[in-house]
Give the backbone structure.
Amino acid sequence: MAIQNDNDLFSKLGIEVGDGKLNIDLNQTREFFDTLKNTFENTAQNLQKDISEGKVDMTENVGIKIDKEHINIDLEKQKFS
């Protein structure tokens, strides 16, 4: 199962492994990372907007409360590896 997942990921990245060779489709790889970058940027912008408008209660979800003077982190709600 893990090998199939690796192959699927490699395929999305434009990487082909076989017969002792590694082939990388740079256009497909670049497109994948550009899409990933855009997704992260959009998500971060939306989250920042929602936080500034008070739409996201990070205190309840992840134990982080931010105001103009303080940053409070509830360590009990944080998950450390």
User: Anything to note?
Assistant: Residues 48 and 56 are 9 Å apart (CA to CA). The chain has a mean pLDDT of 80.
